[in-house]
Amino acid sequence: MTTALLVNAIDLHYGAAQALKSVSLECKPNRITAVLGRNGVGKSSTLRAITGVNQISAGEIILNGEVLRKSPPYKRARMGLGYVPQGREIFPLLTVRENLETGYAGLKRADRNIPAYIFELFPVLKSMLGRRGGDLSGGQQQQLAIGRALVTRPKVLVLDEPTEGIQPSIIKDIGRALQFLRDEKGMTILLVEQFLDFCREIADDIYVMDRGEVQHAGPASDLDLPDVRRHLMV
Ligand SMILES: Nc1ncnc2c1ncn2[C@@H]1O[C@H](COP(=O)(O)OP(=O)(O)OP(=O)(O)O)[C@@H](O)[C@H]1O
């Protein structure tokens, strides 16, 4: 099995503070990889390094065989990297349709449309196309943020805490959507999570981070190992 996304011994600094210490991850195609850890251990920093929002100070990131070097986020999006940031970052004054259409920026003219399957996954988006993003509930905004990332036609989809602050029924919808994207669309999915039950249900592989480092890598069934639980206890 080849690797869709390879993170190889990356360091990341904020000024003098080192947030990531030689972090390595491997995301295999058609699998859901989850990165777990308590607040502040470096999960979001890892995703921001992958998407190019923050620059790494050592190591390398390889997407579908290509080393990313210092390429900015929009170039990585064009290379097939979709990103659903923490807090969703919906444009509150744009309509749902306009929010989805912001995903057109990196696409060829012929591809500038909203794939119909997005509305099958998240019917609420279709019924609210004319509503402003800011009027949607948190769960609806999360679905919109995922939909917007899907408009960019990603091969690798990266999500930062997709269940954060969201009601259980919508968490289930999001879980089903991610499994559909893996199983039917052949996507590689990397997500950061604190919600263990969600990971237990949908993840194939897990990484556990603590204090800027990867402490454990293995199949999702490792979630119940005492050593893994120790790193996740608050
Ligand atoms: N822009 C920034 N400037 C300075 N320090 C930062 C910045 N962003 C994050 N940090 C620090 O880097 C470390 C890792 O933060 P990061 O947000 O990656 O953790 P996290 O595991 O995603 O936590 P959370 O779940 O709270 O988002 C923390 O100590 C945090 O305070």
TrEMBL record:
Molecular-function GO terms, alphabetical: ATP binding; ATP hydrolysis activity; branched-chain amino acid transmembrane transporter activity
Record-linked CDD domains: ABC_TM1139_LivF_branched
Domain ABC transporter: 5-234
InterPro entries the record matches: AAA+_ATPase, ABC_transporter-like_ATP-bd, ABC_transptr_urea_ATP-bd_UrtE, BCAA_Transport_ATP-bd_LivF, P-loop_NTPase
GO biological-process terms attached to the record: L-amino acid transport
Pfam families named among the record's database cross-references: ABC_tran (PF00005)
Family that this chain belongs to: Belongs to the ABC transporter superfamily.
Protein name listed in UniProt: Amino acid/amide ABC transporter ATP-binding protein 2, HAAT family (TC 3.A.1.4.-)
Source organism of the structure: Devosia limi DSM 17137
Taxonomic lineage from the root: Bacteria, Pseudomonadati, Pseudomonadota, Alphaproteobacteria, Hyphomicrobiales
